[in-house]
Amino acid sequence: MPNILVVEDSPTMRQLIGFAVKRIPDSKVIEATDGVDALKKLSTQKIDIILADINMPIMDGLKLVSLVKNNPSYKDIPVIMITTEGAEEDKKRALAIGANAYLTKPIQTQELMKLVSSFLE
Amino acid sequence: MEKEAILSKKAEEFLQIFKKGEEFTKDLIKENERLRFRIAQLEEAIESTGNEEKIRLYEEQIRMLNQEINSLTERYKKVEEENKDFAAKYVEVESENNNLANLYVASYQLHSTLDINEVLRIVMEIIINLIGAERFAIYLMDEKTNELLPVSVEGLNAQEMPKIKLGEGIIGRVAKDGESYFASNTDLASGKMDISKPFVCIPLKIKEHVIGVIAIFSLFVQKKAFTNIDYELFNLLAGHAATAIFSSKLYTQSERKLTTIQSFLDLLKEKPKR
To answer: What pLDDT was estimated at residue B227?
Structure first.
């Protein structure tokens, strides 16, 4: 049963992303509202993939990716960034920090589902 | 002498018999050869007849196999066509599913609260995350002055956003006529930003009564054009956002009035001090 951590400050996006990835068989969606909340969730349960926004209060998505990828316990967890930042340099920066994939909003739910499934295989 | 004659006669008879035996043996050998030759001829004939039969059978089998191949090819083509149809339908269904998910989430979120600020935040989230707008403003109608006041602004300086009179410019006209305005794709592609010329202007309507306007001035770089779901979302916002904003405003006002009345009642209940 894959545990999918959705890190988003927007309830609308959390619900939409949850809606999309719940279609992956046996998946469980865990929600976090910012980077700090995500780290708490990571420390208490096994997470198979992280879907994170970039612009969030308290701790943004880039800081979260950096902490995750520098932690030996979490470094192998794939991280997909889902953001409104569509510039090429934003994408390069996120991938350089360690993000495994980069999706821009507005998202296509089937595209997200395919991407998440490919990392869970 | 007589014995010799008898012996000679017997020898003669034996010789005759032997000769007859020899001739008979020769005849047998001849007959054997003739029969062997005949057998060989027959075998050859049988063999040639067998080959023809085999060829006929093989030809028949080839004909049947060809028919089967043709039939299978036809079926394969049909299945392939069906498969293409299914794949196209699957893409269509997936796209429809994506659209419905967007509409469901937008509608669900819009009606999830009665707090006016929360409703405005949700409308903004929908415009940013589901439509992909970078700069936009939500105007609400001031019924007393008949002016549109910017209540929520994204990507622009709120202080610089002017009040707009009913019927003035694109935004004012949309509020007056209650009809959505969409700029052409060429205007969208140009990417020029002008707060008097929004790309999209949606009236927030409760039935025919316009309570406000959403004006979008620019989209994110990755958003090149509007899709069908965007127009669906604009329609949803026009109706549902208006209802949600109106209900939450009424609720906030009634809550405020209730608090005032309650305070007044509490005051009346207090015993007069002498």
So the answer is: 86
